[in-house]
Amino acid sequence: MYTRRKFINTSVLTGASLFIAANSVAEVISVKSDHSSESKPVVISTWDFGIAANMAAWEVLNNNGRALDAVEKGVRVPEADPKNQSVGFGGLPDRDGKVTLDACIMDEFGNCGSVAGLEQILHPVSVARKVMEKTPHVMLVGDGALQFALEQGFKKVKLLTSESEKAWKAWLKKAEYKPIINSENKSFRPDKLPGNQYNHDTIGMLALDSFGNLSGACTTSGMAYKMHGRVGDSPIIGAGLYIDNEIGGATATGVGEEVIRNVGSFLVVELMRNGYSPADACKEAVMRIIKKKPENAKHIQVSFIALNKKGEYGSYAIQKGFSFAVCNAENQELLLKGNSYY
Ligand code: GLY
Q1: Which domain covers residue 251, as residue numbers?
Q2: How far apart, in whole angstroms, are the C-alpha atoms of residue 171 and residue 160?
Q3: Whose CA is closest to atom 4 on ligand 1?
Q4: Domain tally for the chain?
Q5: CA-226 nearest atom, ligand 1
Q6: Do the bridges between strand 112-118 and strand 203-208 make them parallel or antiparallel, or are there none, so unpaired?
Q7: Is 91 in the pocket of ligand 1 (CB under 6 A)?
Q8: Percent residues over pLDDT 90 in the chain
Q9: What average pLDDT does the chain have?
Q10: Which of 152, 205, 257, 339 is the most buried (most CB within 10 A)?
Q11: Does 281 have pLDDT greater than 80?
């Protein structure tokens, strides 16, 4: 049930004012994670930084824009935010000190594009969209992805901020690779961790536009202090993101290796095809991960969010503490606490 709800009339708030309103709510304002009433347009995304991203996406959706444009615009917000150390600019680097970005995007026609291990580019999601629209391929990686981005007019930028460089240098003292559960939440204090082991994660966003079409996007700097060359689930279609315009969409956050092993987002969509609600489909996908490696699952976080064709949404996570943001005509800044196994 809702414990608190904020409503902002979109007819009187636009652009910058919506954005400020979004940033003003950082707490969890609901504990309900399965929303069963039909609603469109709607956009949902992972973690509390999803609120600001949703608001940018909402500007597109509320003007009868396409879900694809909404998700690209939405996830560009955390990509450009230097304070967000798990996505884009300011992301924590790999163990060699390099910020390498993974992103993908998928539309209502089943078109998709993806980049992995992309360096020096501010908006990997927009490069992923170019891969989808301008090439015969789905995925470009590393130097090839960078070369393509430059050919498409993207400019090189330095992604490693002084804060992230400082955190990496502190981590180097022990150099222990250990993902931290729920590091994405604002209440999380990386500076309080031994060795400043701040680790990770992803924004995944799903949108249903006023025409009833679905799209999704997913973008991350990946697991902090990963091996150079490591690719997580976020740019892998079917793992970090999947959209089927007949059924719904799903996206993932957390330890990417477990999401890939279970082809998580595709699984969630297929479960919805078989009649599961979005929340139940997310739960079943999480349970597969737990069942396969129960000991491992105690120490990691994986969460899914899902949105179906009717605008119903839900989530499930291994660990408590996961949150996701929802934006529709009723609720402009709703942040839901996802149900979890532990
Ligand atoms: N889920 C993001 C990653 O594992 O890199």
Answers
A1: 7-337
A2: 15
A3: 256
A4: 1
A5: 5
A6: unpaired
A7: no
A8: 75
A9: 86
A10: 205
A11: yes
Please work out whether the CB of residue 233 comes within 6 Å of at least one atom of ligand 1.
yes
Is 17 or 280 the better-scoring residue by pLDDT? Answer: 280
Residue 137 resides in a domain: yes
Closest by Cα among 91, 83, 87 to 74: 87
Strands across the sheet with 203-208, in order? 139-141, 112-118, 101-106, 214-220, 203-208, 42-46, 323-328, 334-337
Backbone phi, psi, residue 84, to 5° = -85, 110
The length of the chain in residues reads 342
Cis peptide, bond prior to residue 190, ω within 30 of zero: no
Q: What is the mean pLDDT of residues 21-39?
A: 46
> Is 107 or 31 the better-scoring residue by pLDDT?
107
User: Does position 198 have pLDDT exceeding 80, yes or no?
Assistant: no
**pTM to 2 decimal places:** 0.87
57: domain CATH number is: 3.60.20.30
Provide the phi-psi class of 93: left if phi over 0, else alpha when psi is between -120 and 50, else beta: beta
- The owner of tokens 């790999």 is 94
317-to-50, 89, 276, 297 alpha-carbon distances in Å: 16, 26, 16, 11
Query: Which of 229, 236, 168 is closest to 204 using CA atoms?
Result: 236
Answer whether 223 contacts ligand 1 (Cβ < 6 A): yes
Distance CA 10, CA 2 (A): 21
Strand order of the sheet with strand 313-317? Answer: 34-35, 313-317, 302-308, 248-254, 241-244
- Lookup: tokens for 197: 């082991």
The answer to whether position 313 is within a domain reads yes
- Assess whether 14 carries a catalytic annotation: no
Asked if residue 2 is part of any domain, the answer here is no
